[in-house]
Structure formats: C-alpha cells, structure tokens
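For reproducibility, we list the full input for the manganese (II) ion complex.
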Amino acid sequence: MDERQVLEHYLKERGLKMTKARLLILEAFLGMESHVTAERLYEAVHKLDDGIGQATVFRNIRLFTDAGLAREACRDDGPRQYEHAWRHAHHDHLSCIQCGAVIEFVDGAIETAQQAVYKKYGYVPSGHRMELFGLCPDCAARHNSPQT
Amino acid sequence: MDERQVLEHYLKERGLKMTKARLLILEAFLGMESHVTAERLYEAVHKLDDGIGQATVFRNIRLFTDAGLAREACRDDGPRQYEHAWRHAHHDHLSCIQCGAVIEFVDGAIETAQQAVYKKYGYVPSGHRMELFGLCPDCAARHNSPQT
DNA sequence: ATTGATATTGATAATGATTATCAATATACT
DNA sequence: AGTATATTGATAATCATTATCAATATCAAT
Ligand SMILES: [Mn+2]
Ligand SMILES: [Mn+2]
Ligand SMILES: [Zn+2]
Ligand SMILES: [Zn+2]
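The corresponding predicted structure, in tokenized form, follows.
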C-alpha cells in the first residue's frame, strides 16, 4: 500500500473526495525532504500549478497528518514543520542551536525509560516529543577557536 | 540571593533600569503557579495596577527569561507558557491529552542516556525539551467505561 | 535636589501563521 | 446526465507576539 492508496482509503472511509489539487500537494510533499513548512510546500506546489491557493495547502497537509501520511516535527518556534510519517518510524531530534543542523535518532534506552515513567504515574502512552539542543561538532569547533 | 536581587543584578549589569511596573510584574509572576501564560500574568498584574499595559507584561516576562528567573515550559500549541526557573531545577513533562493534567518529573536513566546521545554525535549539550503524552489514570478509566 | 541622557512605558499598529467564511466549482454516486 | 455535497481560491478574521513612537520615569553625575 503506497501513500496515494493510503490517502484514497482514508478519503473513501469518510465520504471525502479526491481532487486534482489534493493529489498534486501529496506528490509535492512526497518529493520533498523532511521538515517541510506549509509555506515551502506551497512554493513547491505553486511551481507545478500556479492556480492552487495556499489555504488549500494548509488544509491538505493537515489532512495528510490526520491520515497518517505526515506528522508534526519538533518545532521550537516559528511555523509548523511536517515530516513524512508513512513508513517513517518515530524518532527524536538533536538540533544545533547555532546552524540549525538536525540529526534524527532513536535511542532504545530512552524509549524504555519513558515507558517506565508512564507506568510509574499510571498514564496510558500515546506518544512523545523530545528534542535535544546543543552545538554540532563544526559549530563547537568554530566557537572554541573564533578566528585562529 | 532572592529573585528580586537576581533581577536587580541582571539590570545593573547591562545598564537597564528597575521600574515600578517591572517589580510588580515580577511579584505577580512569583505569586503564580507554574505554567503561566503572558495573558494570565497580565490579568493578575492588572488586578494590582490597572494602568499597566500588556505589551509591558510581554516585554518583562521575556526579560525575566533572559535573566534566568523564568523559562519557557513545553507547549504544543497555543500561547507560550512560562514557569519559574530560579531555584527550580530542570524537569520534563507528562501530559494528559484529554484533561490537560501535567506531571513534572525527572528521570535519571533518561538524562544519562541523553548525554550518551550527545557524545555519540559529538554535540555539546545545551539543554533539551521532552514531553510525554498519554491518558491520565482518571481519563483512562473514563475512557474504558464510558457510561457504566 | 537638579540635570540630562536614555531606558521604559502604554497605546496602538503591524506582523506572521493559521483558520474561518463563502460563493463558485469539482467530484462521485445514482 | 443529474444531484447532493465536498472542495476550492480569495479574502477576511483571529491569535499571539513584536515593532513603533511620543511621553515619561529612572538613575548616575553634578
Ligand atoms: Mn524528523
Ligand atoms: Mn514545568
Ligand atoms: Zn551547528
Ligand atoms: Zn486526564
């Protein structure tokens, strides 16, 4: 089952309709790298068909999220960021506060410890978001030897 | 060194001035429980002195953050949330997606594992943010027995 | 205490991101 | 093809926050 089929199934299931715009936005999204903002997605879509309004892009990336094709990535501030969710497993982020470089990772020990926290407080897990901030190796080096 | 002294020190250090409004907003903030929004802080301040504008509240809670008296709490969406930072150690959040109940916790195993992740990728740690989502015990119970 | 340089304030406009509104149109069943 | 209704694009509205700016308060030096 590929992304288009997932969407078609999701739509049919609740009486929604497939449209030219919807499909185009999906294709644009699939062709972009992770951490896409609605604005950047709109720009990409606009190149393929300049008749598509940006409200439609906002509406549909949101729909894709409900359908399980996209998910909101960590964002500290600024516009919402989306990443692919279909066949893209959960992961957390390690971000450089200087240059913005982002590493995606999964750490077994952390995931296990998180389950223990849920258990301790009697909560039923539904998901989590974790972002580690720091200086990437390059920025750290530049930081320690400013103009040597 | 109490909060007021911290602020005074921070101000003097960079040629800024202490004002009536500034002090009032600080006192209001200190008198409120964690996870305060600028709007709620403004309401509290307004009761003490209705001549204080809300831009001033926005400006000063931001200043407190720079001064190390406040810090931004996790927020998924909606207005920015602040919590006390002076003599309030780092912690993470476990939130109920149904009723919004929030538990603050620190887990040694997670903190240790996070350091290992930093090391693995050669990043210099500067902080992190983690929020676990789920159903609190009450909401989970209500969810399993809707109207029994 | 008076002065003077300047940081601060309150009111309000502006911004940025997202959502709501709505008439026109496209879609998908029959 | 006909029909009910979901969708669209344009645009207005909303929400949280920041910028602008003239008037005022602060504070270190006289
Ligand atoms: Mn990611
Ligand atoms: Mn907290
Ligand atoms: Zn970097
Ligand atoms: Zn709950």
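The mean pLDDT of chain A is 95. Residues 95 and 101 of chain A are 6 Å apart (CA to CA). Both points were considered when choosing residues for closer inspection.
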